[in-house]
Amino acid sequence: MLSSIKLSPSSFTSTGFLPNRRSIPTPQFSPLPIIKSLHSAFPTHSFSSQKPLQVASIDNLAISKNTQQRKTECQAYEADRSRPLDIKIELPDEDARLEAAKRIKIGIYFATWWALNVVFNIYNKKVLNAFPFPWLTSTLSLAAGSLLMLISWATRVADAPKTDFEFWKTLFPVAVAHTIGHVAATVSMSKVAVSFTHIIKSGEPAFSVLVSRFLLGDSFPMPVYLSLVPIIGGCALSALTELNFNMTGFMGAMISNLAFVFRNIFSKKGMNGKSVSGMNYYACLSMLSLLILTPFAIAVEGHQLWAVGWQKAVSQIGPNFVWWVVAQSVFYHLYNQVSYMSLDQISPLTFSIGNTMKRISVIVSSIIIFHTPVQPINALGAAIAILGTFLYSQAKQ
């Protein structure tokens, strides 16, 4: 409460003031001076306060030459009930600033992820057109990523993960599924257009729901099931109207979808509670997949076929072919690494939406670069499938 204190002339004696004509020092201005002890300032005034007071205003402080009276009116209030100052101080919203920085970071991750993926698919298709050995091409992709990460750990550019036997044990089924999915997708791209492979791979959510429902017993709300209709219908329409349809390429994309669904399931079950970053997790996954894939690649294709095919590709393309192989191998690892780093920063829903947009960028860019002939009905099927994937992402949340 704001209280008003009026001090009468009897509270002061003029002796010591006027006769000696002492000048009153000009008080230093302070918006809220604190009165610590009223008893020491006004020993004859019967006033008591147990709390510190803030001076609100001092009015009519004057000494007249014609009178020996001094009248002072002082207003004060208790410090713990102080009135707010009429000063607007705007402090920067720290939460808003951090949120804006996070959005920028995620945007950079997404843009880098999509750009690296587009570059990989372009060089991968160029290599496969000149060197149709998808098993070796897949092996080189995993080998390049493994080598890059080993160098990074050895030079301390990146901190090596702390793993144990249990970690690698839980990672093994993930690596098996990742290896199958990677090879199947590469086989598909060696037989059909990049755009067609990614249109079929946009049907991965349908495989995820079906596997979870019939093998794991999971149930989903009705909007999730309804979102599968445009996904399946769009993929089917696009496949039926594909000018360069190839059954091996189609089945490769379908197997890749199924394998990556199991990879995601094994990852969720086996990696809970593991304190390995997304970058190091994918590095370990690449190394283990490389060990699994190498003997199968040698058995399926063989080093003799690789030697003949390599010489033929170099003679036709020239030294640029070697750089194509290096580029597709390095960019494969980089785009996957950035995608796992993105998953560390965002929710699975945001990640799935980003993955859908990634496929759109790959389909459009590959059609433009490779001049892939596309019928209107084929483009409509692709659009319907991708729209269904987006609806699935929304309904899954």
Automatic annotation (TrEMBL):
- A matching Pfam family: TPT
Sugar phosphate transporter domain: which residues?
Answer: 105-393
Highest taxon above the source species: Eukaryota
Q: Which GO terms describe its molecular function?
A: organophosphate ester transmembrane transporter activity; phosphoglycerate transmembrane transporter activity
Q: Which InterPro entries match?
A: EmrE-like, Sugar_P_trans_dom, Tpt_PEP_transl, TPT_transporter
Q: Where in the cell is it found?
A: Plastid, Chloroplast membrane
Q: Could you identify this protein by its name? A: Sugar phosphate transporter domain-containing protein
Membrane-topology annotation of the record: Multi-pass membrane protein
- The membrane-spanning stretches of this chain are 106-123, 135-154, 222-241, 278-300, 320-336, 376-393
Keyword Signal in record: no
Source organism per entry reads Gossypium raimondii
Q: Which GO terms describe its cellular component?
A: chloroplast membrane
Query: What keywords would UniProt list here?
Result: Chloroplast, Membrane, Plastid, Transit peptide, Transmembrane, Transmembrane helix, Transport
Q: Where is it chiefly localized?
A: plastid
